[in-house]
Structures are given as structure tokens and as C-alpha cells.
Queue: 3 jobs
Job 1
Amino acid sequence: MSSRLASNNVYSVLHPEKLGNKLNSINTTERVKDIQCTLQLLREVWLKVGLEKLESHEGIAVKALLDSRVTDLFMDMTFAKEKGFKMEKLKKPLLVRNVDRMANAGGAIMHQVKCNMFFKGHMERARMDVCNLGKTELILGML
């Protein structure tokens, strides 16, 4: 790699010692903010998926959050009720813990929904735990 390319590398602001005398010639604060904004946006991955009710075969398009920190599939309670998904009561409630290991304010999971989920030509039978997700309709954990 030529030194000209290396000196124009936007990530070089993370290592000021490599910039030498050029440190005063660029606005490092602005570049760091640009990088932080970009990294913030990459933390959320949204997918448009299709859901099919098993009973009526009605299809619903929905925006789902893909989250690698989550270990299961979740559907928002309000969304499930509004769209008329058949909710099955669980034999035993599932306790929900947040990332900080504290109990979720929404309480235990009492119901689940079974449906077919479609993404780019792939179909899979899905079992989703129903809970309060706020403005997010679906969360797809990385199983």
C-alpha cells in the first residue's frame, strides 16, 4: 500500500501516533464522529420477511430486527393481536431477562405463535415467543 493511500485512510484517526505532523492538518473530531455514526447504524439489521398464519394461510409482510444477542424468535403482543395470530398458552411461563440480566418489565412470556416465515424464497416453520417489544414487531435471534 502506498503511503499516499495510508495517509488518507479515514480510520487512521483512531491511531493519532501514526499521523505524525499531519494531525493538525485534518479535523480528527469530525472524522471520528463520522465513523461512530456509521458503526452505530451497522448495529441494527432489519429484514423484510413474510409471515403466514397456519390456520388461514393469510400472508403478512413485516419488518423484523435481526439481533445476534438474542437466542430465540419473538413477536410483539400488540402486533400478534392486531394481525389475528392464534396464540397458544404455554404450559409454564418463560422468564425474560434483559441484556443486563435484570427481569424484563413486560413480565414472563405466557404465549407463543406458530407460523410460516418467508425470506428471499426460503420458507421455514417458526415458533415465536409473544411478549411486549414496544415499536418492534419481530425480533429474529441468531439461533
Job 2
Amino acid sequence: MWFTRARAFVLLFVSLLATVQAADDAAAYPKSVTLSYEVIGAEPSSVKPLATVFYNPATLKYTISSWTPASLETLQSTTPESTSSRLLRILLPNGSSTVTALSTFGNTLSQKVDLWLSSDADGSIYSASVTSSLPAPLTPEEERLASKIQRAKAKGKPIPSVKPTPKSKKIKTETETEAERQKGPTVKINLIAPTPGPTAKLGSRKPAVIGSDGQEIPAAQEEKSFFQKYWWMLLIAGVLALSSGGEK
């Protein structure tokens, strides 16, 4: 009897934690978008899901709910000719689309998904693109460790493990490298917020006054003061007064 009650209490506690976690995720990532893809020219044409991203347009933080990229092996039967050179159309729910190469989703590449936020108050995504990049090159320590592992495998000896030295990057063991390889390529989401465009600098000139004949009427000029008119005469008189000699 007590075991049944304890089990019910544990299930209730777990469900409450799941509810609280879901509420926190909804508050942290209030918006979501689902990207799809289709192979251009493939027969029959079909649209498949690519990724679902939950994001916050205010903080530009995100979390990836699902990631199912196109596979070269899966599409080999439908597009046998030059599979890696085929093009994919990346689709958004609003009908917007961009094009990328199928080779973008290679197993040795990392993908980056650019999402452009709309300037509307709802913070929706109006455009998306997918690009790829090569992984970062190995450090000298990682290259030496890889060479040792290859030599050990060739001779049938135990795989060596090297401890990282201070002030250097952590050296990945073969187990860690294999675990990352099983996780698949690294996917990065780049949320791009809207920025205000350039604006024209308007002059301060008043609108022109047009007469009955269609010609512009010159604006009346303010009358100059006595000093503004004859300042040069006063300057000459002062120079002459300073240069003229006086009696002892």
C-alpha cells in the first residue's frame, strides 16, 4: 500500500517539475519557427521538416527543438546523378524561401542557420538561409595525439591518453571525439535583429513662394545695419589713425 502511494507521489512530483520546466521554457522562448526543405528538380517533389527553433526576439536567445537535415545517402536513390551538387530550397511558413546546396549538410561540416527578424511587433521570422563551414583545425597537441593513436592502432597496442598541460586547450580523447562524432555536426542559429536604414537629411530652406506667373518670388532680404554696410570704411579709418604720426 505504501509503495503504491509513494509511486503516485513520485509521478505527481515529476509531472509538476515537467509543467514548471515547460512554463519556464515558454517564458524564455515565446516564439517559434519551423523550417522545411525540398530538393529542386527531384521527382516526386516532397517537402520535409528541417528544424524547429524556439527563440526570444528581445534577448536573441534560442533553443533547437528538432534538427533533421537532408542526408546524401537517403537522397541517393531519388537523385543518383551528382547528388552532392543538387540544390535545396529552404522554406518558411510565410512562403519565403532561399536556396542552398545539398553538400551544405555534409557529415564533416558545421551548419549555420541565419534567421532575420521582422521589424513588426510580433518578432516573426521573414527570411532564413543555411550555410556551412569546415571545423576548426586541430591544435599541435591534438595532431600529436592523433598520430600516437594511429600508430598504436597499427601496432595493436593500447590507445595512449595524454593529460592536458596547463595554459593549453583540453586535449580530446578518442572517446570524447567519438561521442561528438555520434552527436552529428554542430548547428548554430544566428538571429539577426532589424536595424534602421539610412534617412535623408532634409534642409532648413522654407518652401518657395510661387507667383501667379509660375515664377518663384525672391524672398525679401533683411536690411543691413550701418556697421554691416560700412565696416570696411571704419577699418580703413582706424588703420590711417594708427599709422599717422603725432607731435612730440
Job 3
Amino acid sequence: MQTHLQSVMPESANFMRQVELNSTISGSIALGRFQRLAELLASDQGEVEASLKFGTCAGYACVKGSVTGNLKLECQRCLQPMAFEINSQFKFAFIDSEDEIELIPDEFEPYLIEGDEQSIVDIFEDELLLSLPMVAVHETACSEYMTRHEQQLKAEKEAAHPFAALKALKTEQDDSIN
């Protein structure tokens, strides 16, 4: 029997019961529900799409999950908001004690089951936190300082090649002949 729940993601679920049902839980999670992540975001507006597929893998109760979305981080160069795309997949094997960690296959991360209900929001928040860059910066020069720095590096590189100007003249001359 396979069940599929879709809509706004519930706060928690009994993961072992979900394994028995071979269920899939998917939906959206508002960024405002992630308290620890919100501290690192430029804005907690928006949501991520998330999915958990429960079952048995390699003899272990497991879950395969994914989370996708766009986060607004603060660029550490210009201190302006920047978009950061998240597209993360993960696989957890459920264990009852830390003694089982060494037994699970390498393709899985261990997930210690404690109690009847486990937090769905926490599992996704942890994954989002692990997916963040150590230092958020725009891919291109985003500040006046960085623009000047890139121009200076380019000028130094050109100055290091004294025959670059002659090559440019030769190229211009060849183009005018054709």
C-alpha cells in the first residue's frame, strides 16, 4: 500500500509508520517555518518545495528526500540581497541506536529515530543549512571595489605581456586588409 500526501508540509510524522505505508509526503514549506535558517536569510519570504519518499532500502527503513527553491541571502561583498538556488537530495537510513551507524551502507546518512513522532520541518531545515555556501557572494563583481579590483587585475595581466599591444596592432592590420 502506497499513500501520497501533498499540500502544505505537516510539522511532524511517525517515520516508521510512513515506512510501513511506503508513503510519499510532498508539498511546500514556508521559509518562515525554519527558525534557524531564517537568521541567515536576507528575507524569509517565499517557500521551498520538499518531498519525502519512505520505504525499505538495503534492508533498512529509509527515506529519500529532496528540497528545491530559491533563498535570498546577503552578499558578503556588497551586503545586498542575492538569489541562491537550492536543489538538494538526501537519503537517510533509520537507526534505533548509535551502535548501528557503522552497519548502514555508505550511500545513506544515519537518522536516529527517537520517539514516535519526528520533525519533518527539522529534517528539511538541516538539509537547507548544509546546502548554504560558507560565504555568500554574487558570482560577478557586485561592488565598486570589486569592479575596480577586476579592472586592475586585467590591466596588470595585460602589462605583464609587453607584446600584447603589438599582437593587437597586427590583428587590427590583418582585419583592415581583409
